[in-house]
Amino acid sequence: MKNMISVVLTIDTEPDDAWTNHRNPSVANVQELLRLQELLGKHGAKATCLATYRVIQDEAAVAVLRELVEKGGAEIGAHLHPWETPPFMESGVDVRYAAYPHELPLDIFSQKLEHLTEAITERFGRPTAYRAGRWGLSSEHLPILERLGYEIDTSVIPMVDWRGTMGIPADQNGRGGPDYRRALRSPYHPDYADACGQGASRLLEVPVTVSLTRRFPTALSDRFGQLPVLLQRALRKLRIVEAVHAIPADASHTQLMRMIKVLLAAQPPVINIALHSSELVVGGSPSSQTRAAVSAVFDKIEAMLAALRSSGVCEFMTLSDVARRHATRTASDSPPTRVRVAEAGHKRQSFATVKGHRHMRELAYILSPSYSGSTLLTFLLGTHPDIATIGELKATRMGDVEQYVCSCGARIRRCPFWRRVEEVMAGRAVSFSVTRFGSHFSCARHYVVARLLGARVRGAMLEAIRDVCLWALPTARRELRSIVERNRDLIDVTSSLQRAELFVDASKDSVRLRHLLRTRHWNIRVIYLIRDGRGATSSFMRHHSTTMKNAAREWAITHKECRQILRYVPQQSWLTIRYEQLCKDPKRTLYSVLSFLGVDRNGASQDYRSVEHHIVGNYMRLKSNDEITLDEKWKARLTKHDLRVFDRIAGRINRQLGYE
Predict the structure, then answer these.
(1) Of 60, 645, 643, 616, which Cα lies nearest the Cα of 393?
(2) ∠ at Cα 317 (313, 319), nearest 5°?
(3) Which residue among 177, 229, 271, 653 is least crowded, i.e. fewest CB within 10 A of its CB?
(4) To 10 degrees, the CA torsion angle through 376, 382, 387, 390?
(5) 489 vs 327, 335, 385, 597, 630, CA distance in Å?
(6) CA-to-CA distance for 551 and 92, rounded, in angstroms?
(7) In this predicted structure, what is the pLDDT of residue 343?
(8) Which of 90, 183, 82 has the alpha carbon at shortest distance from 139?
(9) How far does CA 519 lie from the centroid of its chain?
């Protein structure tokens, strides 16, 4: 039974035609669930009915749900529609508009969910499954769901971006819908800072199933939803490939059958089929306006269930059954792992052991142009006992390795720490030497592969082309996989030797972060470190013996790259820090960074020479003076001509960053 695919049918059990009139009080469509139950019973399937507050308040609807539970083994969960669930906001915006739950103030959301949970508990016992109305889940909701006893969520619908679809109008602080383009497609425990990614929440996320109509490697198919919309349309029009969600009302019979064929070949752990109860009655939804349309929905559901049942590798169950199976599998397949769990929300975290949780190491990435203070920040973070770092993990500027000095003062070839790293890496059957880290995303043997790996970060279209090429070329695919695994081994080994859970990579460049984000091997948080461009370019000119024209161009291009890559990072997962503030008030700035990273905010020291570091990077790693001073020598070094050149090339970007 271990390799069986769990199949669930999740039904948003809600009022009639909420699309046209979100305040429609009628719930007559719920009666059609009895007809659906006959079909489900024929194939041995079970329903998970996620009910709204108005449905739970209707005695006739409750009677139908009770019959589904008693005769069909159905499960009753919660589906929060803000506009029909009390208490209501004084402004009334949560009633006037079809608000997303994530648009509500957190205390209002909590009170509404408590009210809905209590109503369901009175009639069916405490619910453990939840789906947000309009799919509007936020990472901030996770602790609240856990507190109320929910064990499983199914609000995520991968490869969909609803940010342009409004709930509350923008002029009344509406935020638009969620962006699930980067969401994982298999069940996972979400992160307290990013509900789309793997983390340490006790809640199990079971996304609505989505699949391409042709088989592609997982790394490529996972990113299909991030392709530009026009490119996706072109691929669909040319009948090359398209993404299909397991939503019978939204897809054709042919699309659904192609999707199931691909899924049965891939054998995902769960197939989650979603529908609305209102789609089962004429006029109940935009897709069910005629008897023929309703009949087509039932026919497609039956065709899907029949195909899955006849495969011999599927087992129908409820969401709670899936949660229990997932817990059993992870407990038997995985040893206890030390991970981060939240104490009170996602901002305050501590280390704990969670049995059966798949280990994903925490990775903090410093993103910035050169000479913006990354080495100083790395040294300060490196004083924290829960943080490991070796500075720039890419290790590309070591020059003569025989003469290169580790920040501990010893030559790197003789440094005991680096010798130990070589020994442990060898024990993992990984050929590693400090003369060649092999962690930089480059390829000396193949020019084309080197260009694909190292080209600057561009717009979404070019990045999508890069992803396709990296997958399509076997040499590029192998090289990328090898470099990623080398980074993974090196991070694991150095973190273990430094006895820390969180690793800081101060490599700075955007394309490296792009490759790390693609892998999903790490929970990545980004520290975007900025400095007045005049100071950064002054240092660049001095160390590279170049003109302001070249320095300003490099600085401006690098910042544009940083902005491009931050589009791929959830807003909650990156933090902007100013070099000037770090130097003027290191204690408070460091406190903010550590809070963002989720470690003890009092664990680091401003005396960064108080502990031994093994950092590779620029010359500052060798400075013996531990005094933190703001470097403003550029004010005297730069001529009026230099300043005019800088302002012409990069002045606008510098002002956008807040520097006048």
Answers:
(1) 616
(2) 125
(3) 229
(4) 90
(5) 28, 19, 21, 22, 36
(6) 54
(7) 34
(8) 183
(9) 11
pTM score = 0.62
Spatial separation of the C-alpha atoms in residues 443 and 476, rounded to whole Å: 9
User: Parallel, antiparallel, or unpaired: how do β-strands 337-342 and 349-354 relate?
Assistant: antiparallel
Distance of alpha carbon 416 from alpha carbon 542, whole angstroms: 34
Give the tens place of pLDDT for each residue, 406-419: 888 888 888 999 99
Q: What gap in Å lies between CA 208 and CA 404, rounded to an integer? A: 53
Q: Is the peptide bond before 87 cis (omega within 30 degrees of 0)?
A: yes
| Closest to 169 in 3D by CA, of 96, 84, 88, 112 | 96
> Taking 70 as the threshold, does the pLDDT of residue 2 lie above it?
no
3-state helix, strand, coil in the chain (%, to 5): 45, 15, 40
Cα distances from 230 to residues 234, 236, 358, in angstroms, run 6, 10, 36
Provide the CA 287 distance to its chain's centre, in angstroms: 31
Q: What is the pLDDT of residues 534-584, one digit of tens each?
A: 999 999 999 999 999 999 999 999 999 998 898 888 777 889 999 999 999
- Give the residue among 225, 70, 233 at the shortest CA–CA distance from 161: 225
Task: Decide: 197 and 179 in contact? Cβ < 8 Å.
Answer: no
Closest listed residue to residue 47, CA positions, set 334, 316, 303: 316
Q: Which residue has the tokens 């550590």?
A: 594
Residue 428 confidence class, pLDDT cut points 50, 70, 90 = confident
